[in-house]
Amino acid sequence: MDATVSEEQREIRRTVRDVLLKHCGSGDVRAAALTPGGYDEELWRRLGCELGLAGLAVEERYGGAGYGPMELALACEETGRALCPSPLFATAALTTPLVAALGTREQRERLLPRLASGELTGTLVLPSGTLPAALGLTDRAAAISRKEAGGNAADWSGGGRSGGVQARRTDDGWRLYGEAGQVLDGHSAGLLLVAAHTGGYARGRTLLFLVRPEEARGAVRRRLTALDETRPQARVQLRDVRAERLGEADDAADDDVGGALAALGGTVAAVLAAEAVGAADRVLERTVEYARVREQFGRPIGSFQAVGHRLADLHVAVQAARSAAYYAAWAAGAGQAAAGAAVAGVALARALETARLVAGEAIQLHGGIGVTWDHDAQLYFKRATSDELLFGPVHGLRARAAAAAGLFDATDDREAVVL
Known about the structure:
Strand content: 5-15%
Radius of gyration: 21 Å
Helix content: 40-55%
Shape: globular
Number of helices: 14
Number of strands: 9
Pfam families: Acyl-CoA_dh_1, Acyl-CoA_dh_N
CATH topology of the largest domain: Butyryl-CoA Dehydrogenase, subunit A, domain 3
Keywords: FAD, Flavoprotein, Oxidoreductase
CATH class of the largest domain: Mainly Alpha
GO molecular function, one term: acyl-CoA dehydrogenase activity
Structural class: alpha+beta
Distance between the termini: 29 Å
Protein name: Acyl-CoA/acyl-ACP dehydrogenase
Largest sheet: 7 strands, mixed
Order of helices and strands: HHHHHHEHHHEEEEEEHEEHHHH
Family: Belongs to the acyl-CoA dehydrogenase family.
């Protein structure tokens, strides 16, 4: 194993950081979050098109850079430091890999170049609160293959009778009906990758469908009021919307959607962990800077032993979380399926905990200004809290990782209470 960061990877990180320092300051972040799209379109053109971040992990034959999860994680670590609102995660980490894994040759050739260039943004549409389970990060059943489970219609897709999005086959193709909440960038994405249940209860299964909301009649998208405005969420309603199946159109085609999502879980967890580490690292830097200049009793508060010890503990926590995130990214890129499944959830749990801890301590150490609307500490605390709600719970991530590592017997129910 060699999970060290190469000079080329460091250059990617430096380049992204330089651009964000110039174009994604505190005022820029707040202004971008309040736009209808929830992000700065000009900055996205710089990141997605000029720097090629949207296509970092896309094969070169489709217009990408041909890198892997490690490079994408390093880029997202920098966007996390700046709390940069952008469609990078939803497009590059969720949508593009699934199109590449399950799409037909024609679909890949049509969609991947546009996704890789940043011209087209996308997102994955799942029922509310089911993303970690669908990716096999918090629910063992979501990672079981269709052959083992007797069908791939897992609970996260809306079940067999109702809920989520339902799909039916008609003379002119597929039609979708239902709704999903908490869809990342769902109000602005140019391509919706919708997980829908079809086949009824007895023979139900989950398939993925492509929807272009600007062209589809009956698609209604509304941005939600979220705790973290820098990570926009939306409610997507589909009312008899025409859709294109991702993959072979033949009903007999053996698409293992659950398996593809579970295989993607390690990469997604590594990218999210790196993003959380970036946010934790930056808010810690700002807290250290404040402790050096804020005086109490005639001396900087950072000179007090109690404050210094707290900051040192936070530094150790951030470095440990970064190491775990980098290892998870390496495991995902090296094709270590077993290792990736075992460490991805642990890395994400560690990073989410660290981000929440550091952001909370930052508010405490900043004193009264730490809780004011004008200070950025509250933005980092909201990001940490929101991410833990969206991609956790932390104990569920650890329980799933323990099960994947074989620490518990398959019939042992105690894994549900592992903390």
